[in-house]
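Quick illustration, no need to memorize.
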Amino acid sequence: MLGPSDAYDQTQPMTMAYTTDIIVNGNWILPIERGEFPATKPPLYNWLAVPMVKLMGFDKDFAHKSPSVLALCLCWLVMVRLGRRLDSKHSGALGWLTGMMLASNYMFFKLGYLARPDMVLTLWLVLGWITATILLIARDEDLTTTRRFALAGAFWLCVLFAALTKGPPAIVLPLYALIAAKPLGGSLRKTTIFGWWWGLPLCTIFFGLWVWGVFHIDREHLMQKLWFDEVAGRITGLGDQGNTNGPIDFFRSIIHMPLYYLTRFAPWSVLSIIAMFTIWTRINVSEGAMQKVRRWRKLGELGSYLNGAALFVIIIICLYTLSTGKRADYIAAAFAPGALLTAWWVLQLPKRIVKTAAWISVTAAIATLLTMTLINEYKPSNPAIHAGFGDDINEFIHETQQYISEFPTPIVYWAAGSSHLQGHLGSSVKDGSIPLLTALHNEQPFWLVAGQRSSEPLDISNWLIANEENAVLVKRCSSKELPKYGGWPKKVTLYWVVPVPK
């Protein structure tokens, strides 16, 4: 958070633009980026960001990223509390080790401060996994009717919130409830405790209301972009969001998700896999007995959570493997249960090693966080981006806001680039020649944020001459030279424009 701004990176500009559009234009159902491109994800993340952006201002990175930060903190807190509650042997060490391992890996480090819905989705999936596990392992006599209904309601709320955050990944939770019912609950009949007859219809109705709203606003966008490109296209590889090579890429990339788990959850991933095999090994029920059971069954409630954690990790990895479009951040929700497994395994080492192993874990966590901090600071993998690129953009935004606040008139954008610039300036309008011509013909002064293009006409002065338009341009401020990255122009300038009547 204290490093250079990266608000320009990945799909964050889109997410920020959606939040701004909700505040400025009231498009709560289908937010629009820069007045032209409808949202490609459900809007729950943006709904959560709106209060903080209103409070802190459009130009604050933290405000736009606050849902991810809050989700990260809650994921960490929930896993720490869960580990402490299950740990009756090591004075709560399972809790702090789990939290430390969860926070000190690449995916959580990055997703926890990105204006993207992945971390918020992870929170709903983790909470849903814990709630489902509580329901499955609880004895019927230990659950009152009220508590059973409350837990089932919380589970279905997690399903609904996951769907409103990113759509299809919500299926992970019902799938886990079905697959884990027999090993954790003893029978498939245990699934009745979830109240499928009322929970699933309610989730469908509420999510369907959002879908109906999008259908009413833009039917073509719903069918082509949200359904085909974002869902069917990713799964089959035929849409522009998949691998675009068709279903054959399912076989070519079948190993990608397991490898993502190994590399992005490093250094804890290998230990979590060892922990899975450990809890599934068979041990004697008692001395000299011939009967053997899985180790997790001898660990009581802790064993049930560990087995549920292993199942949840496998379900997430396998489910996303079925899609041809594969990305590492899809499996971020597997890291919380993976951290619980890893922490438990470390604490099973011989007593004389445990203290040393604990310090080794702390050292590994510190080294991992330090490495990722340096990478985030200097970005050696992308030489086109200098370390202060994001801060240079923010400096221009802040200077622009000072001028605009003195004369609050409409802002027009011309070749300002595909960026978060509009969102941070509190605008959500079309960029280009047509809005500029409209503003010029209104013959009223206005602000203009114009980019320096790499093709003719290079700048706004040339464009005015080429289009035989007369206007007085007063330059107020300019950004520093910007690298050619993500649709950014070479430079962005703020002008005060006074049209000259023909």
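DSSP finds 21 helices and eight strands in the chain.
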